[in-house]
């Protein structure tokens, strides 16, 4: 039999606008039952397809559990009696909770659970659980029916229903939160091609999870996969050092602009001089961001950073060196047109820049072009009012930063062009990992647009659908905000294009953020897989609940999540369509310690 523990009873079934029905189940209280029944458990209830000879069970998922002692009541309204009597009644409760260890002998104590349907059923044929067929639900559970908790073995079968690791490209994403023996699997192709979102508040371990997520894709995929990670905070060099140095992967740290690198690192990749290697590696180490638990092991990174440099894993992208005046204007747009820029000032600035844009918009922004534009702006600013003049001065300042007569030529071996990247992203011979960094978020957003449109047009024009590419945006609110302007509009437009049309050509996106409410709503609804942790803001929970028609009770359980706990819900990648699964994932720090050779403690 696929059951465990003592049965309960379905007491109430109420309509729910998101999950169709919400169910209330009572179990007789025992301390062991209370410890054993958890959110995420699967339970079985006879449904109306049952006959005198055959029992057909609907499967539900527990969303909350609560012990209730009816001598005291179940809510605040029940405690409005004389305080002395209420306190006396409460004082007698602990003995009832403790004494009922394995057997329930008090009618006043119950475990009350809520549960939602997962739209699956099975027939109890009394055979081995491996032979029980799990099918789509075709009837409603019987109110008053006996409720049984499913065993871990059968629970794993239900959650992974239809996934065949022998025939599909599959990886283990984690284990069921309430039972580490229950492994949860996902289809890699559907996970990344049909987009995913990673949502959780500060401190829940988004970077830790994303590091393991990427690592496990490369470790488990039996197909070529290309991942492009836009790393706004420069966190992932330390978190993915093992995959950056993996010889089976074409991996590179791509830097947009020379200023993204420290002077020692830039000098080393330009000269490849052994005498400069140690200083360059030390510089990388000093600026390396590592998780809090890895700080004591930070020095162990040094030899691996030296290997990273010697293996030419750090490259400058050519487009950062050869940008046009039009690209430059987009990069500095939000710095010049700040929040205090009125419509009148914006119109005046547009008029002033009209001739320069017409002449130089598509030309490379050389020192000569920059000086010509500076001279023009300096003259014209003399006849402007102070508000316009202030913004012209900002633009001149950023143009002056471009001018650098001592800028060295970059070693060709340390450069990479977008054309080269596109060629590799379409190459099926070897998996690839690109971590994209920049000292300037505007440059990073502009680059995402250029790379995204070129790979999209390349795939669309040639009808190419493989290998699967995943463009992952950490701190996604900095790439796809609502009402985007300037470079925010650039990144938002290409990400929306990939989200809406990319899957047809094997191009997926991943978005990770803690600020869901601020995201472009056209993009927010596109991912078919969500990983959700603590979301304190009600507005954020509402958006997630709407996307997958989840009840609020289902998201409430995330309040109790620890670091590494996630609510996984997917339309395609898991064995159950749009059914939330609470999972526990591995700690990336354990993986990194092993790779670095840290002493076990």
Q: What's the N-to-C terminus distance? A: 42 Å
- Numbering strands along the chain, what is their spatial order in the largest sheet? 9-8-20-19-18-10-17-16-11-15-12-13-14
Most strands sheet: 13 strands, mixed
Question: What class, by secondary structure content?
Answer: alpha/beta
Shape: elongated
Tell me the number of helical segments per DSSP (H or I, 4 or more residues long).
23
What is the overall pLDDT average?
90
Second CATH tier, the architecture of the largest domain: 3-Layer(aba) Sandwich
Q: How many domains make up the coordinates?
A: 3
Radius of gyration: 29 Å
CATH topology of the largest domain: Rossmann fold
Helix fraction, binned, reads 25-40%
Work out the strand percent.
Answer: 15-25%
CATH level-1 class of the largest domain: Alpha Beta
CATH homologous superfamily assignment of the largest domain: P-loop containing nucleotide triphosphate hydrolases
**Uncertain stretches:** none
- In total, the number of strands is 20
State the main characteristics.
20 strands, alpha/beta, 23 helices, 601 residues, 24% strand, 13-stranded mixed β-sheet, 3 domains, elongated, Rossmann fold
């Amino acid at each position: 039999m696929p059951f465990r523990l003592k049965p309960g009873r379905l007491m109430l079934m109420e309509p729910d606008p998101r999950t169709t029905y919400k169910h209330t189940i009572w179990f007789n209280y025992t301390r062991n039952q209370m410890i054993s029944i958890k959110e995420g458990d699967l339970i079985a209830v006879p449904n109306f397809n049952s006959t005198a000879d055959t029992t057909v069970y609907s499967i539900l998922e527990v969303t909350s559990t609560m012990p209730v002692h009816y001598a005291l009541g179940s809510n605040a309204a029940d405690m409005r009696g004389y305080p002395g009597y209420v306190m006396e009644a409460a004082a007698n409760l602990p003995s009832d909770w403790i004494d009922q260890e394995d057997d329930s002998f008090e009618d006043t104590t119950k475990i009350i659970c809520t549960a939602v349907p997962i739209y699956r059923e099975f027939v109890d044929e009394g055979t081995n659980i491996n032979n029980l067929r799990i099918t789509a639900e075709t009837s409603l559970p019987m109110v008053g029916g006996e409720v049984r908790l499913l065993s871990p073995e059968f629970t794993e079968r239900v959650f992974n229903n239809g996934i065949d690791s022998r025939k599909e490209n599959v990886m283990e994403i984690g284990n069921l939160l309430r039972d580490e023996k229950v492994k949860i699997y996902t289809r890699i192709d559907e996970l990344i091609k049909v987009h995913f979102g990673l949502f959780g508040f500060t401190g829940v371990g988004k970077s830790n999870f994303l590091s393991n997520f990427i690592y496990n894709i490369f470790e488990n995929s039996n197909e070529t996969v290309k991942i492009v990670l836009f790393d706004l905070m420069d966190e992932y060099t330390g978190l993915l050092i093992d995959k950056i140095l993996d010889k089976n992967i074409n991996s590179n740290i791509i830097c947009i602009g020379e200023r993204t690198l420290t002077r020692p690192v830039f000098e080393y990749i330009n000269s490849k001089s052994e005498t400069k290697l140690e200083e360059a590696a030390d510089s990388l180490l000093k600026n390396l961001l590592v998780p809090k638990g890895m700080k004591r092991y930070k020095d162990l990174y040094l030899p691996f950073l030296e290997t990273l440099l010697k293996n030419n894993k750090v490259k400058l992208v050519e487009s950062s060196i050869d940008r046009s005046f039009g690209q430059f204007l987009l990069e500095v747009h939000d710095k010049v047109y700040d929040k205090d820029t009125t419509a009148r000032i914006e119109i005046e600035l547009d008029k002033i820049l009209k001739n320069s844009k017409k002449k130089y918009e598509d030309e490379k922004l050389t020192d000569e072009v920059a000086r010509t534009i500076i001279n023009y702006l300096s003259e014209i600013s003399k006849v402007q009012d102070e508000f316009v003049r202030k913004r012209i001065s900002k633009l001149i300042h950023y143009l002056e930063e471009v001018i650098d007569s001592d800028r060295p030529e970059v070693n060709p071996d340390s450069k990479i062009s977008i054309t080269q990247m596109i060629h590799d992203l379409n190459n099926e011979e070897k998996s690839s990992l690109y971590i994209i960094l920049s000292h300037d978020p505007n440059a990073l957003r502009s680059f995402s647009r250029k790379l995204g449109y070129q790979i999209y047009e390349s795939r669309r024009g040639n009808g190419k659908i493989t290998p699967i590419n995943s463009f992952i945006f950490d701190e996604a609110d900095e790439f796809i905000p609502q009402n985007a302007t300037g470079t925010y509009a650039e990144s938002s437009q290409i990400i929306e294009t990939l989200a809406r049309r990319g899957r047809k050509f094997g191009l997926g996106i991943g978005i990770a953020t803690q600020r869901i409410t601020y995201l472009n709503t056209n993009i927010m609804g596109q991912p078919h897989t969500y990983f959700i942790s603590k979301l304190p803001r009600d507005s954020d929970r509402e958006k997630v609940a709407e996307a997958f028609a989840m009840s609020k009770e289902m998201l409430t359980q995330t309040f109790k999540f620890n670091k590494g706990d996630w609510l996984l819900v997917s339309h395609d990648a898991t064995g159950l369509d749009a059914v939330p699964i609470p999972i526990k994932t591995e700690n990336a720090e354990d993986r990194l310690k092993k790779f670095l050779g840290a002493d076990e403690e």
